[in-house]
Amino acid sequence: MSYWFRNDNRLPQGRLAVASYIIVGMVGVLLLGFWKLQVIDADKYSSLAERNRVRYIPVIAPRGRMLDRDGRVLVDNRPSFSVLLLRDDLPLVEKHLPGISDGLGIPIDDLREQLNNTKNLPKFQPIIIKPDASRADIDFIESHRADIPVLEMIPVSRRRYRPGGFLAHAAGYVGEVSEQQIEASNGKLRPGDFAGKTGLERQYNDLLQGTDGMRRVVVNSIGKEVERLSTQEAIPGKQIQLTIDEDLQQVAEQSLGARPGAAVALDPRTGEVLAMVSHPALDPNDFAVRISGDDWKSLNEDPLHPLLNRAIQAQLAPGSVFKIVTATAMLEDKNPPESFTTFCPGYATFYGRQFKCWVYGKSSHGVVGLHKAILESCDVFFYNVGMHLGIDRLSYYATKFGLGHRTGIDLPSEEPGLMPSAEWVERVFHRKWYAGETISVSTGQGAVTTTPLQLARMIGGIAMGGVFKQPHLLKDPPSVGEERFALSEPTVEKITDAMYGVVNEAGGTARNVMLPGIEVSGKSGTAQVIGYATRERMGKQKKFEDNAWFVGYAPRRNPEIVVAVLIQESGKHGGEAAGPVVKDLIKAYYDKKNKKTQGQYTTENKSEPPGKGSAAAAIAPRAAAKPEDSAAVMPARARTEPQR
Amino acid sequence: MKDAPGTRDYDWWLLAILATICALGVVEIYSATHGSGLEGMHMKQIRWLVIGFLLMFVLSRLDYHLILDQAPLLYLVGLTALVAVLLVGRTHFGAKRWISIPALGELVQVSEMVKLIIIIVLARFFAEVRSDQLDLRDLIKAGLLVGVPLVLILKQPDLGTALVLMPMLVVGAFLAGLQWQHAAVFSLAGILLVGAVFYPPVSRHILKPYQRERITSFLHPEEDAKGAGYQLLQSKIAVGSGGFWGKGFRNGSQNQLGYIPVRYSDFIMSAWAEEQGFKGVLLALGLYMALLLRLVQNAQRAKDRAGMFLVMGVAAALGFHVLVNVAMVIGAMPVTGIPLPLMSYGGSATLFVFLAIGLVMNVRLRRFVN
C-alpha cells in the first residue's frame, strides 16, 4: 500500500476559490431564471395555469313545452347529451382531431370547418361538435378522458315532437342556428345552439328559448372535474299554451290522410286556431338534431313540397268559394238588385266569347236567382253579377274580407295570396284591365289566389256579420287583431241561408256534409289548375287535376267553428273531396262539446274515414270555363302557375 | 482507532443545511401526493432519509484513506455491477437500471452507486498525480477511467447519470492542474458534441429516439404539446404562476391537479416554486448554495490532496444535479431525468447523496489528525 498521498497537502486554494465563485454564479443565474418566470412573467403564467385549471361548461336551458288548449303536451323535451370541443388550446385540439373524427364518426373536414367558423369566439367557450351523442359516443369520450382532454359532454334537452308529423307545420321545428341568426341575436346565440327554424318554434323562439347558464369547474390534468367553482343557472324557456285542440287536430290529420292539401279550423268568435294540418308532412324529430345538407336539399326539391305549410302558404285559386264575395258585394251594392235572375243554358257569351258553366254539356241551371246560384254554384249567374259590379267593386269587397293580404296569424312565412284589380295589372303588367278578366275573377278563377286560412277567416267573418278576428295559435295572446266591415243584416241573412242550403237543401252542392242536429253551412269550390284548352293540350295528368275546396261552419249564424279544407289535385269537386273532412271536424267538435256539457269529458276521436258514407253528390260545382284562347283575357301568371 | 474524532468535529452547519433541505423536500412530497394514489410517499422518503443519515455516520467513521486504498477494487466491483445490470437487471420505464437487493426490499439503481465509486476512484487517481500541472497523458487516463463506466451507463440507457460523471472529471482535472490549452481543446470538443446532439442529422446516429425526442421538445415545445415539451411547459406554468409569494402549501393548482409531471420527484422544484413562490425558491436555492459552498470550504480545509479531491468530487456531482434539475424545471434545459438531490423522492438517489456527504464528513473529521 502506498500511503504517500496522505501527506501530500498541496491544495490548489486558488482554483478552489474559483469553484466557489462558480457556485455563487450558478445559483445567481438560476435565480434570475426564476425571477423572470415568477416576477416578470407571473401574470402570463397565472392565466395559463388558470386556463389549465378552469373550464367553462355551458348549462343549456331547456326549451319551453307547447301545450294544447286543454293542457295536453304537444311538444316536449327529452334528455340527451351533446359533445363539446374545448378550444382553449388550439394546437392540442389540432393534434387530436383525427382521433376525434374517428371516434365520433365526424368527417375531419367538418370539424375543421366548425373550428374555423368559431375562431372569433372567446377561446374558453367550447363548441358543440355533436348534438345528441349516441351510447357509443358517450363510451368513447368516457374511455378517452385521459388521452383526449379536449372533449366534454353536457346534458341537454332535445325537442320531442309527436311522431308522424302530427302538428308538424304549425309547431315547426328547431335546428342549429344559422350564421345570420347568430349575428341577429346580439350575442345571445352561439354556434351549435338550437333555435326555432319554422312555425311556432320560430315565432315564439324568444319565449321558448330560455337563457343558458355557465358552470365554471376545476379539472385535473386528465380532464376530470374535481370541483365546481360557480354555476350560473340556466333559466328555462317558458311553456306556451296553444289554441290547438289535440282531439280536433287528430281528426284533421286522419281525415285529410295521405292526400296533399290542408285543413284549418278556427273559432271565428275569437280567431283561435283549433286545428291546422298540411299534408304531406315530415316528422320534425328528424330535424331535432342535425340534418345533412343532402337530406335538406332533397326535401327542398321534393315535388310534393313537404316543407310547405299549405294552410298559410298555398296560394291557389279559391274557385267557387269566391262566389260568396261576389254575392255579398251584389247584395251590399244592390247591383244588380237582389231580385236579379239570369238564364243559364250551361254557358254564357261575353264580348263574343263563350264562358262555360260547370254543368256545360251535361245540363243547364235554367232560370237562376241568388239563392239557387249559391246552392248550385251556377257560374253563369255570377259571370253576370261580376259584369254588373266590375273589378273595382269585387276587389274592394274581397280586400275588405282579407283576400290579398296576410291574416296576421302568429306564424312566420304566411303568404298573402292575390286579389287582382285594375290598379294591380297596371302596376305589374303596365296595361289596362280587360273587362273579360272580371268574369273569371267573379267565380274565383283568373289571377285571384287565396290560402286556406284566408278563406276560413273570410267565411267565418261574413257569417259573423262582418267581424274578422285575427287567427292565432297562442292561447292567451297579448292582443287579438280584429277587422270590422259591417254588413247589413239582410245581406248576412241571405248569404248564410244560402250557405246553409248548400249543405242542407235539395240541389246544394255539398249535401254529403249534412250532419243531423247541427246547422252545418258552407261553400264548395273546385278550382282549375290550368285552363281547359291547356289541359287538352297536355293530356290528363295528375298534377293538372282540379283543386277541391270546402269551407264549412256551424251553426249558420255566429258560428263557433269554421273549417277550410283544400285537397290538391283530387280530380273531384270540392264538396265531394273536401266536404267530408270538414264534416269530420265539425262533428268531432260537437261530439266533444256535448260530452263536455254532459260532464264526461274524455278524448275519443275516431272519426269515419273520409268520404265514406257521404252521398257523393253527382251535382258538384265545376268552376267556370275560361275562353278557349284565354291568353288575351287572363294574366299569364294566373294561367300558368296559379299554385305555388 | 486511537485518533477517532469526537462529535465536536462533525460539520454541524453542513448537517443543519442538509436536514433543512430534506425537510423542504418531505413537505413538498407530502403536498404533491396527499389525497392521491401516492398518498404516504413522504413517509417512505423519511424512511430513506433515516437510512441515509445512518449510512452517512457509518461511512464517516471509516477513515477515507482506507476507502481510497480500495479504489481499484471498488472500480472493478462497479464495472461488474454495471455489466450485471445490463445482463440481468430489471427493466423499468424502458431502461435497465435496477437490481434487486433483497435486504432493502427495494430496487437499487446501480448507477447511483457507481457515481460514488467514480468519485473515490478519481480522487485516488488525481491524488497520485505528483506535479502541479496535469499532463495530457494523465488527463487521457482519467478520461478512460470515467469513459468505461460512462459508456456502460449510456447502454442502460441513462443519459442523466452518465452526464453526472462528466463534471466529476472536469472539476477533478481542473483542481489537479488542468492546463488551459487542454481545457480549450476539450471545451471545443465538448461544444462540438453538444452541437452534434442538437443537430438532427448527426444526433440520429448517436442518440436514442427518446433522447432525440427530448431534445426536439426542448427546442420546440409547442410541437409536442402532450409529450416532453408539455412537461416543460407545465413546469414553467407552475413556476411562473407561483409568483413572488406562492400559492401556499397544498394550494398549487398545477401541483394538486397533476399538471406537473412526476411532481414528487424530478419536478419537485416546480411544485415547490408554485406553492412557495420566489421567496421559497430563494430559500431552497440559498440552502443549496450554502451546502455547496460549505463543501468547498471543507475541501479547502482538507488535511491532504486526496481528501480535497473526494470532497470536490461530491461537490461537482451535487452541483451538477442542482444545476441541471433546476434549469430543467424553469425550461432552460431539456428533460434529462436527473433528480434534485435531497428534495426529490427516491431511494437510491437519496442514499447516494448521504453516502457522498458521509465521505465529506470523513474528510472533515480527519482534518487535524495525523
Protein structure class of chain B: mainly alpha
Rg calculated over all Cα atoms of chain A: 36 Å
Highest CATH level, the class of the largest domain in chain A: Alpha Beta
Biggest sheet of chain B: strands, sense, closure? 3 strands, antiparallel
CATH second-level architecture of the largest domain in chain A: 3-Layer(aba) Sandwich
The termini of chain B sit apart by: 12 Å
Low-confidence stretches of chain B: 102-106
Helix percent of chain B reads: 55-70%
Distance between the termini of chain A: 115 Å
Q: Name the biggest interface.
A: A-B, 49 and 61 residues
The largest beta-sheet of chain B arranges its strands as 1-2-3
Tally of DSSP helical segments of chain B: 15
Strand content of chain B: under 5%
Topology:
The complex is a heterodimer of chains A (644) and B (370).
Chain A: H1 13-40, H2 42-53, E1 54-59, E2 66-67, E3 73-85, H3 90-104, H4 108-117, E4 127-130, H5 135-143, E5 151-161, H6 168-171, E6 174-176, H7 179-184, E7 194-196, H8 199-203, H9 205-209, E8 213-219, E9 225-232, E10 240-241, H10 246-256, E11 261-267, E12 272-279, H11 293-301, H12 310-313, H13 323-333, E13 342-344, E14 347-350, E15 353-356, E16 366-368, H14 370-376, H15 379-400, H16 422-429, H17 435-441, H18 452-463, E17 467-469, E18 482-484, H19 489-504, E19 521-527, H20 532-538, E20 547-554, E21 561-567, H21 574-577, H22 579-597, H23 636-640
Parallel strand pairs in A: 2-10
Antiparallel strand pairs in A: 1-8, 2-3, 3-4, 3-5, 6-7, 8-9, 11-12, 11-21, 13-16, 14-15, 17-18, 19-20, 20-21
Helix pairs in contact in A: 10-22, 13-15, 13-19, 14-19, 15-17
Chain B: H1 12-33, H2 41-61, H3 64-69, H4 71-88, E1 90-92, E2 95-101, E3 106-109, H5 110-128, H6 136-155, H7 159-175, H8 180-198, H9 200-206, H10 209-219, H11 228-242, H12 253-256, H13 268-300, H14 305-329, H15 347-365
Antiparallel strand pairs in B: 1-2, 2-3
